[in-house]
Amino acid sequence: MLVNGKWRKLPQSEDIIPLTSSKMNENEERSSLRFKCFIIIQMIFVWTGYTVMVRYSRSSTLKHLQYFPTTVVYLSEMIKMIIALFFVFQINSYNISEFTRYMRKEYFGKPKDLLKMAFPSIAYAIQNNLDFVALSNLNAGIYHVTTQLKVVTTALFMMIILGRRFSSIRWLAIFLLSGGVAVVEVSINERNVAEKNDENYVVGLGAVLLTCVTAGFGGVYFEHLLKDGSETPFWIRNLQMYSCGVVTAALGCILSEWNRIFTKGFFYGYNIVVIAIILFLSTGGIYISLVMKYLDNLCKSFASAVSIILVVMISYFILHDMQLNWIFIIGSITVCGAILLYSSVPE
Asked: What does the record list as coiled-coil region(s) (predicted)?
């Protein structure tokens, strides 16, 4: 090429491609980071909204007029399954015949995969029942402190199942997060420490420990299935999970509150707030799946910690049904410090 009266050599294609590829990778990383931040922020928003709505609905309604929680869980599982079906339908360009063939091949044609997804679903069902046993035998303060061990059990299962390894600084951040959330929970429940004569602390603590194990296992195993490198599409995995969730939720309705549901009706106590709770719970489940796929369980734990702090702030400034104290401030600072510490170093 002639430049200023002199011939210059044109750059070769191999000199250009690495630069172009580097820029493309950089743009992809930025886009991926924005997407991950979006997921986390949305999940915090959904969890916060869900918790505030549940708190408001239970505190503003007389006990005998309240809805049945098992029906809310069942409907949320149904909605999640419908959402997953919609995205599978979208993948097939809204073509019914292609959708039918796709479902026959990927969903009904893989019963072993469906059976795999039953394990985390059963683990979550066991966890819900153990929560009831624990709360029946422990006061709220002890319960909330001890259940924060699930952050640690989650990290341990990530090491066992996913082969993850954490640096000593990240382990410190994990324990700080667990302790910080426990302190926040104590500040919330410190007034409700009255003991009951029929409490069995051994049974209660045993139930809590099993809850932490099942919660950690269920979450990490689900993450493992989403990241196992198989050709099973993401939304099919979710559909398998939510199908099992519908079954376990239906069993919960039958075993726990069937008589009351049969007497008063499935939708007893429902109003606009309950509908909002169902929608929050449904979308929260979808975002959890996205976090499992593109981030990990510990990110979910950190997001949950932020959500707890936001719930307390909303309860204090908007609902006016909670008081802040120095214990809450210490716990919140600890949680924020744990988040910064965890994100400041690689594994």
From this structure: none
Q: Are 53 and 277 in contact (CB under 8 A)?
A: yes
- Measured between alpha carbons, how far is 40 from 337 in angstroms, rounded to an integer? 18
The pLDDT score that the predictor gives to residue 201 is: 74
* Tokens coding 57: 């609905």
Instruction: Say if residues 182 and 145 touch (Cβ distance below 8 Å).
Output: yes
Instruction: Supply the pTM of this predicted model.
Output: 0.80
Q: In the prediction, which pLDDT does 148 show? A: 77
Instruction: Describe the crossing of helices 168-189 and 149-161 by its angle, rounded to 10 degrees.
Output: 150
Distance CA 219, CA 246 (A): 17
CA angle 135, 73, 181 (to 5 degrees): 45
Whether 151 and 178 have beta carbons less than 8 Å apart is answered as: yes
Q: Looking at this protein, which amino acid is placed at residue 173? A: A
Contact 89, 180 (CB under 8 A): no
Calculated CA dihedral for residues 164, 167, 168, 172, nearest 10 degrees: -70
CB neighbour list of residue 219: distance below 8 Å, 6 or more residues apart: 120, 154, 157, 292, 297, 300
3-state secondary structure the chain: CEECCEECCCCCHHHHHHHHHHHHHHHHHHHHHHHHHHHHHHHHHHHHHHHHHHHHHHHCCCHHHCCCHHHHHHHHHHHHHHHHHHHHHHHCCCCHHHHHHHHHHHCCCCHHHHHHHHHHHHHHHHHHHHHHHHHHHCCHHHHHHHCCHHHHHHHHHHHHHCCCCCCHHHHHHHHHHHHHHHHHHHHHHCCCCCCCCCCCHHHHHHHHHHHHHHHHHHHHHHHHHHCCCCCCCHHHHHHHHHHHHHHHHHHHHHHHHHHHHHHHCCCCCCCHHHHHHHHHHHHHHHHHHHHHHHCCHHHHHHHHHHHHHHHHHHHHHHHCCCCCCHHHHHHHHHHHHHHHHHHHCCC
CA–CA dist 164, 154 (Å, integer) = 11
Rounded to 5 degrees, φ, ψ at 292 are -60, -40
